[in-house]
C-alpha cells in the first residue's frame, strides 16, 4: 500500500475511531499493518483502540512496537502509560508519562495522567505537584480540580480538598463526580445533611452512578436513616460496580434494622466477593452468632482468623460460638488466643476467668480474676456479676451463649398455661422467635419510639424504631404505647396467670411498671427472662433491682434457670 494511500486509509480509520465505530477502524488499522508492519501510527492507534475495548495487555504490546518505530513520539509514551495504568502497573505508567512530558512538557493532560498514576501508587506529594502543574497550564479546569481534590483528600487536607471540589463545581455545576466526591468528604467530616445533598445532586445528574448511590447509603446510615440507606445500597448494587465493602455496609444497615436474615445474605455476598479478606468473614460470623446459628458462625470466624490470626474480637466471638456449659474447653482455648492477641481485652479475660472457674481450674481462674482486677478499666461490675451468679446458681442452672438458646430453654421450662408476653419488641426478632415455639397468642408491648428516659449513656429516644411496627407472625399481637398506658386495659381484658415474660425493658422504671400491673398474675410456674440482668455497669440498678423489689413485695420464691454472661440474660422460674 503506497504511503499516500496508507495515510488516506489512516485518516478514514481515525474518522471511524473518533466517531466510536471501533470495528471498521480496527479493520483498517490491521490492513495498513499488513502492508506496513512498522507503521507507528497504526500500531499506536490499534493499541489505543484495544485499551478502549478493555484489552490493555495487547495494547501494551502494540504501543511498544510503535515506540520502537519512533521513540520520540510523546503520544505513544502517553498511551503506553494509559494502558499500563489500566493494568494497575502504575509505577511503570509513571515512567511512561515522565518520558512523554520530556518530549511535551506543556501538556496538561499528561501532567494530569501522571498525577493519577502517582496517586494510585501512593506517591501523594508528587501527585499533587503534577496536578498543580496541570492546573497552571489549564487554570480552573474542573476535571483537574476534581483530581486535585481527591489527592488532597488522601493527603488528609480536607479543607483544601473541599475548596478544590467546590471550585470544580463552580466551573461545572453539572459535574456529577465532583458532587459525589464532595459528598464523601463532607460525610467523613460529619456534615451529613450537606453530604447527602451533594450525593443526591450527583445522582440527579447521573441516575446510573452506582458509586454515588453506595456513598449516599453510607451517609444515610451514619445519620441513622437506615431504611433509606438500605434502599440506596440496593440501588447502587443493582447498578454496579459491586464490591465487598458495599455489601458489608448494606449488611450493617440491615442488621441495625433487625433484618438479620437479609444482613447475613449481604455479608455472605461480601465474603464471596473478597474471599481473602478477613473483615467480610468476621461480619458474617458475628451476624450468624447474633442469629444463634453458632456452628455456621464458628466456620465463618475460623475463616476470618485464618486470614487475620491477630484479631482478638474474632477469637472471643469464636469462644461464644463454641461454648457448651458441659464442655467449656474449646471456648477456653479460643479466649486464650484472644488474650495472646490483645492482653488488655477485658471482656475476654473475664469470660476466660469464669470458664476456668466453671471448669474447676481454681488456680488459673484466680490468676485471671486477679489480672482482671489489676488491669485497665473498671472491672468491678463484671466481678460483682460473677460473684452473684456463682452464689445463686444451682446444679440445674444452665449457662448459654446466645439469646436464642436462653429463650428456647425458658419456653421449654414454662409449662404453665397462661399469657405469653414480651416487653420491649423493637424489631420483632425475639418475639417472633417466641411465637414460633408456643401455641396461642404472644403479646408484645413497645412504644416503638425508643427509651422514654435516659439509660446510662443512652439518651432518651435510643433504640427507636421511629414508630414503625415490625413484621410479626400471625399469632403476635402488638400493644403500642408506654407500658403504663397499655397495660391497665390489657390486664382488664386478659384474665388468668402469666406463663412467660421476656423482659427487655432496660430501664428500672419500665420494668417496675410491668411488675406493678402484672404482679398478681405472676405465680408458681411462671418463667421470667431478663435481657439486661447482669454484666452491665449498672446491672444492680435496672431490671435486676426491679425484679428483686417485686419479689420481696410479693413474696416470690424463685430459682435461676439460666444465666448467660455473654448476652447478659437471666431466666427465673417462680416456685
Segments where pLDDT lies below 50 for 5+ residues? Answer: none
Q: Any idea what the CATH architecture of one domain is?
A: 3-Layer(aba) Sandwich
Mean pLDDT: 96
* Oligomeric state as shown: single chain
Shape: elongated
Report on this structure.
This protein has 575 residues and is of the alpha/beta class. It is 63% helix and 7% strand. It has helices at residues 3-18, 22-35, 40-52, 56-69, 74-86, 90-103, 108-120, 124-137, 142-154, 158-171, 176-188, 192-205, 210-223, 226-239, 244-256, 260-273, 278-290, 294-307, 312-322, 329-341, 346-358, 362-374, 380-392, 403-413, 429-435, 483-493, 508-518, 543-554, and strands at 398-399, 419-423, 442-446, 476-480, 498-503, 527-530, 558-564, 569-574. Helix 27 (508-518) links the parallel strand 5 and strand 6 (527-530). The longest helix has 16 residues, at 3-18. It is elongated, with a radius of gyration of 32 Å. It starts with a helix and ends with a strand.
Amino acid at each position: 500500500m503506497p504511503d499516500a494511500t496508507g495515510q488516506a486509509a489512516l485518516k478514514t480509520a481515525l474518522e471511524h475511531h473518533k466517531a466510536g465505530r471501533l470495528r471498521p477502524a480496527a479493520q483498517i488499522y490491521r490492513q495498513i499493518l499488513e502492508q506496513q508492519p512498522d507503521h507507528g501510527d497504526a500500531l499506536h492507534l490499534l493499541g489505543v483502540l484495544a485499551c478502549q475495548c478493555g484489552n490493555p495487555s495487547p495494547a501494551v504490546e502494540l504501543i511498544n512496537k510503535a515506540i520502537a518505530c519512533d521513540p520520540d513520539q510523546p503520544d505513544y509514551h502517553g498511551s503506553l502509560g494509559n494502558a499500563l495504568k489500566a493494568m494497575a502497573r502504575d509505577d511503570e505508567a509513571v515512567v511512561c508519562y515522565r518520558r512523554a512530558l520530556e518530549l511535551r512538557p506543556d501538556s496538561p493532560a499528561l501532567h494530569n495522567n501522571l498525577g493519577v498514576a502517582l496517586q494510585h501508587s501512593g506517591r501523594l506529594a508528587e501527585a499533587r505537584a503534577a496536578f498543580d502543574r496541570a492546573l497552571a497550564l489549564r487554570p480552573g479546569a474542573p476535571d483537574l480540580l476534581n483530581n486535585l481534590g481527591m489527592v488532597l483528600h488522601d493527603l488528609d487536607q480536607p479543607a483544601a480538598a473541599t475548596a478544590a471540589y467546590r471550585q470544580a463545581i463552580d466551573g461545572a455545576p453539572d459535574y456529577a463526580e465532583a458532587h459525589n466526591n464532595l459528598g464523601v468528604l463532607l460525610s467523613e467530616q460529619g456534615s451529613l445533611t450537606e453530604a447527602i445533598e451533594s450525593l443526591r445532586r450527583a445522582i440527579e445528574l447521573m441516575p446510573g452512578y452506582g458509586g454515588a448511590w453506595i456513598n449516599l447509603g453510607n451517609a444515610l446510615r451514619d445519620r441513622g436513616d437506615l431504611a433509606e440507606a438500605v434502599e440506596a445500597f440496593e440501588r447502587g448494587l443493582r447498578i454496579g460496580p459491586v464490591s465487598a465493602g458495599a455489601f458489608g455496609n448494606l449488611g450493617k444497615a440491615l442488621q441495625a434494622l433487625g433484618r438479620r436474615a437479609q444482613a447475613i445474605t449481604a455479608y455472605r455476598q461480601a465474603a464471596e466477593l473478597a474471599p481473602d479478606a478477613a473483615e467480610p468473614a468476621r461480619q458474617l460470623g458475628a451476624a450468624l452468632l447474633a442469629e444463634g446459628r453458632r456452628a455456621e458462625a464458628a466456620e465463618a470466624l475460623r475463616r476470618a482468623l485464618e486470614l487475620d490470626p491477630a484479631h482478638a474480637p474474632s477469637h472471643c466471638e469464636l469462644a461464644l460460638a463454641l461454648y457448651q456449659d458441659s464442655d467449656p474447653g474449646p471456648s477456653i482455648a479460643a479466649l486464650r488466643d484472644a488474650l495472646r492477641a490483645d492482653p488488655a481485652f477485658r471482656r475476654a479475660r473475664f469470660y476466660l476467668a469464669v470458664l476456668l472457674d466453671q471448669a474447676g481450674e481454681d488456680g488459673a481462674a484466680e490468676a485471671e480474676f486477679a489480672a482482671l482486677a489489676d488491669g485497665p478499666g473498671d472491672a468491678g461490675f463484671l466481678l460483682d456479676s460473677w460473684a452473684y451468679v456463682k452464689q445463686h446458681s444451682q446444679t440445674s442452672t444452665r449457662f448459654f451463649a446466645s439469646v436464642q438458646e436462653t429463650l428456647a430453654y425458658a419456653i421449654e421450662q414454662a409449662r404453665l398455661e397462661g399469657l405469653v408476653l414480651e416487653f420491649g419488641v423493637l424489631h420483632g426478632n425475639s418475639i417472633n422467635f417466641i411465637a414460633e415455639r408456643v401455641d396461642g397468642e404472644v403479646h408484645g408491648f413497645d412504644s416503638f419510639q425508643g427509651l422514654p428516659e435516659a439509660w446510662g449513656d443512652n439518651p432518651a429516644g435510643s433504640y427507636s424504631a421511629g414508630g414503625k411496627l415490625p413484621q410479626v407472625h400471625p399469632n403476635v399481637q402488638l400493644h403500642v404505647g408506654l407500658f403504663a398506658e397499655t397495660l391497665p386495659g390489657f390486664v382488664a381484658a386478659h384474665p388468668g396467670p402469666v406463663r412467660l415474660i421476656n423482659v427487655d425493658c432496660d430501664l428500672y422504671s419500665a420494668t417496675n411498671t410491668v411488675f406493678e400491673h402484672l404482679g398478681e398474675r405472676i405465680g408458681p410456674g411462671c418463667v421470667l427472662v431478663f435481657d439486661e440482668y447482669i454484666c452491665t455497669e449498672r446491672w444492680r440498678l435496672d431490671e435486676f433491682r426491679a425484679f428483686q423489689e417485686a419479689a420481696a413485695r410479693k413474696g416470690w420464691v424463685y430459682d435461676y434457670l439460666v444465666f448467660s454472661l455473654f448476652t447478659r440474660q437471666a431466666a427465673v422460674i417462680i416456685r
